[in-house]
Amino acid sequence: MKIKIKYFGQLTEIIGKTKDEISTESENIIDLKKDLIKLHPVLKEHTIQIAQNNKIMGEKDILNSSQIDIFPPFSGG
Fold this sequence. Notes:
Layout: E1 2-7, H1 10-15, E2 19-23, H2 29-39, E3 49-52, E4 55-56, E5 67-71
Parallel strand pairs: 1-5
Antiparallel strand pairs: 1-2, 3-4, 3-5
């Protein structure tokens, strides 16, 4: 499956870009995270949140969107 990934916040500086397009066999969010760490090893050092269809997803949730957003953790306020 081809997925368009959009990075937000400090992740754009860490990775050096705002978006990617990748091909993946991932079926769930945890496998997608592993693919992203292979693509950008620096992500292993950071906590990330993944959203699909404008909803933050858990690691066991099924990957079913071709548009994924990657965020650094949110802070309260």
